[in-house]
Design goal:
The protein is mainly alpha-helical and 351 residues long. 58% of the residues lie in helices and 6% in strands. The protein folds into two domains: 137 residues, no CATH class; 201 residues, hpI Integrase, Chain A. It contains 15 helices and five strands. The strands form two sheets. Strands 1-2-3 form a three-stranded antiparallel sheet, with no helix packed on it. The chain has a two-stranded antiparallel sheet with strand order 4-5.
Length: 351
């Protein structure tokens, strides 16, 4: 992939704005390695925090690059709480009062990671850490106050369970183009094989969006029916793919292999005659577009929930589902036992 595009380009561009110690944090995450998508997310949070410091007279510099370590260390608990409150109010006005918790937690976690790094994982010429006072330790992440029953109820009607997974893919393959304009139809036909491969891969593997975006051509093994991916925190994994998707993936893989480009990403986009790796945003848009036309607008993560629920429904093994999804424990998979329980109740009502 060209260095002028994608997450790496955006990270490098943001690093030009940052103080040296923030760039050292980024470089340390590169050595883990943390996925470049995650590093980019960190960068966006850091820029937001540093700009807020300047705009609210915590610091007063021409640009955020000039913010010193001493100024970072001297931020008070009250000042950091003011930043968190500012973010919470901004997110509430944008997303609603009940949907902002995850986004706010991501912001706090990023700031905590930076402060923890500066206080614990750095070393100056004297062998001391850059900072000793860690104000972020006084700020706590608020856990979502939702029961598994509530989360399962929120997903009700949004999962393509049973025969609906197959029906959804067949709708996109055979019927979707009948409901769109001629202009949209031209674009659809151009990307049809790619989009079907993306949708079927989500529904047959349970991959996260960033994991799917990060797949390169040589990561996919159609003979074994497995794909190599980079999980969260830079963990490599090999993920089996359910057989029903192989046809869609093979069709796209053959078309993709014939494209003359140096871009190694499996899923690509051709915009203004420039080929580049497809973005998370583009995938979110195409999933929303097709799912809304079929039944209800969903996200790639909802397709992940669909796959996990179907897998648990046939296996009744939380360990199997947990391993397939790349979780380090079975606790996150408890959600799917509640969804399956709700599905069973619906089935009983129909008897």
């Amino acid at each position: 992939m060209s260095e002028n595009h994608g997450y790496r380009y955006n990270v490098n561009k943001l690093m030009l704005e940052f103080p040296y110690y923030v760039n050292e944090f980024i470089q340390s995450k590169d050595t883990v390695p943390l996925s470049i998508a995650s590093i980019y997310s960190y960068c966006l949070e850091f820029r937001k925090y540093l700009k807020w410091m300047n705009e609210n007279n915590i610091t007063s510099h021409a640009n955020i690059k000039e913010i010193t370590l001493k100024e970072m260390e001297n931020v008070t608990k009250r000042e950091l709480e003011a930043f968190v409150l500012h973010e919470r109010l901004r997110l509430e006005s944008k997303c609603g009062s009940n949907t902002h918790t995850s986004a706010l937690n991501r912001t706090i976690a990023a700031i905590k990671s930076l402060y923890n790094y500066l206080c614990e994982q750095t070393e100056d010429i004297h062998g001391n850490t850059y900072m000793t006072r860690n104000v972020s330790r006084l700020i706590h992440i608020r856990k979502k106050s939702e029961t598994l029953h509530y989360r399962a109820a929120q997903l009700e009607g949004k999962l393509f369970l049973g025969d609906e997974t197959k029906a959804f893919l067949e709708f996109v393959e055979q019927d979707y183009e009948k409901s769109v304009s001629n202009r949209a139809k031209t674009s659809f036909k151009k990307n049809k094989k790619r989009d079907l491969a993306i949708l079927s891969l989500f529904l047959s593997s349970g991959l996260r969006c960033a994991e799917l975006v990060g797949i390169n051509l040589n990561d996919l093994n159609l003979e074994t029916g497995k794909v190599s991916v980079m999980r969260k925190e830079g963990k490599k994994d090999v993920v089996p793919i359910a057989h029903f998707s192989h046809r869609y993936i093979t069709d796209y893989f053959e078309a993709r292999s014939s494209i003359d480009t140096e871009v190694q990403a499996l899923f690509i986009t051709d915009y203004n005659q420039k080929i580049r790796k497809i973005s998370n945003a583009s995938i979110n848009k195409l999933v929303a577009k097709y799912s809304a036309a079929y039944k209800v607008r969903v996200t790639p993560h909802t397709l992940r929930h669909t796959f996990a629920t179907r897998l648990y429904n046939v296996s009744h093994s939380q360990v199997l589902v947990s391993n397939q999804l790349g979780h380090s424990s079975t606790k996150p998979t408890e959600l799917y036992t509640h969804i399956v329980s709700a599905e069973a109740k619906d089935a009983l009502r129909k008897l």
